[in-house]
């Protein structure tokens, strides 16, 4: 038979050592941001049914969790608050003694070196369950900016290190940046949920955070999953308004968007591996249908390959343990 010309790609896959030499992407514990839900009350550590292994913590239990996360070497947590009291002006979002503000101070006491990231949004704090202010059944943009900026400022005043607005109102990065600067917080960075889609993958989170909208949906402010070019316009606005990092959310169905942002901007890019992405893996693993560790690490490596620098994931404690064990 005549000699065929072809490439022998398999040469570089011959052994574990060779594969390690040519490996292009790694997940590191330094890449991780760990989400934590804080509730009012005492001695509460309640598992969220649709998110096995994820809990609601009252502040005392939260302190223990902060230490566990710190001991695993995870550099950052992001806080989500679930207040007892909701009102139309979302007052607990920016109250000095609000649940998130208290949690920030508690986390700082436990570990001053942990980077405390805070989710800035109103949906957990008003009965309508929308991310902005509701007037006559409409989510009004500009009046919402003031409350969002006020919320961000209250987080900075409590000691937050990184402010992450997730509301998707237009102009919120400029409003928050301006308010932080005016109050002496020029050095507190903003991580924008720049590209946030109106996604069905947030279902378990909304159960967890009691933040499902009481009417309508979030499609007038969160993005249409069909749109990619529009994501570039959203990101461009946030970069111009002063964002220091850009997030894509959800992550798995939006890997192309992560890649496009990576190619277009030199800011750190964050992938949010959201609640249903977590729940689906957990459910399949519990049924014995997949190898959880292998699927989790393959997914995370995929985010890195797509161009993410950082990964916000409910799996981060597991990942830190896998990495420690040399996986
Ligand atoms: C609040 C917020 C949501 C998530 C993070 N911040 C819910 C939403 O927009 O409906 C979802 C996170 C997840 O699903 O893990 N705006």
TrEMBL record:
UniProt catalytic activity: 2 5-aminolevulinate = porphobilinogen + 2 H2O + H(+)
Pathway: Porphyrin-containing compound metabolism; protoporphyrin-IX biosynthesis; coproporphyrinogen-III from 5-aminolevulinate: step 1/4
CDD domains cross-referenced by the UniProt entry: ALAD_PBGS
Keyword Lyase: yes
Gene3D superfamilies: Aldolase class I (3.20.20.70)
Matching PANTHER family: DELTA-AMINOLEVULINIC ACID DEHYDRATASE
Subunit structure: Homooctamer.
Protein name (record): Delta-aminolevulinic acid dehydratase
Protein's organism: Tumebacillus lipolyticus
Protein encoded by which gene: hemB
């Amino acid at each position: 038979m005549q000699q065929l010309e072809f490439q022998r790609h398999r040469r570089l896959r011959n052994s574990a050592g060779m594969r390690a030499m040519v490996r292009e992407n790694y997940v590191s514990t330094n890449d991780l941001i760990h989400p934590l839900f804080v509730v009012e009350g005492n001695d509460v550590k309640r598992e969220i049914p649709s998110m096995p292994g994820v809990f609601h913590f009252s502040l005392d239990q939260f302190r223990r969790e902060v230490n566990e996360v710190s001991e695993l070497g995870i550099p950052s947590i992001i806080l989500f608050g679930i207040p007892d009291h909701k009102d139309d002006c979302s007052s607990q979002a920016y109250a000095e003694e609000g649940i998130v503000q208290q949690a920030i101070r508690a986390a700082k006491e436990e570990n001053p070196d942990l980077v405390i990231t805070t989710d800035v949004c109103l949906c957990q704090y008003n009965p309508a369950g929308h991310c902005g202010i509701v007037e006559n059944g409409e989510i009004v943009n500009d009046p919402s900016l003031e409350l969002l900026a006020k919320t961000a400022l209250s987080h900075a005043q409590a000691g937050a290190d990184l402010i992450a607005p997730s509301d998707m109102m237009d102009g919120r990065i400029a409003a928050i940046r301006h308010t932080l600067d005016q109050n002496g917080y020029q050095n507190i960075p903003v991580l924008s949920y720049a590209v946030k889609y109106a996604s069905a993958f947030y279902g378990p989170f909304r159960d967890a955070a009691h933040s499902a909208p009481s009417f309508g949906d979030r499609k007038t402010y969160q993005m249409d999953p069909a749109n990619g070019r529009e994501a570039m316009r959203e990101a461009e606005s946030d970069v111009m308004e002063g964002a220091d990092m850009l997030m894509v959310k959800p992550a798995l169905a939006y890997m192309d968007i992560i890649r496009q942002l990576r190619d277009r901007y030199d800011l750190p890019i964050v992938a949010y591996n959201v609640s249903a992405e977590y729940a689906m893996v957990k459910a399949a693993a519990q049924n014995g249908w997949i190898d959880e560790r292998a699927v989790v690490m393959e997914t995370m490596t995929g985010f890195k390959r797509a161009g993410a620098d950082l990964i916000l994931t409910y799996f981060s404690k597991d990942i830190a343990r896998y990495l420690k064990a040399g996986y």
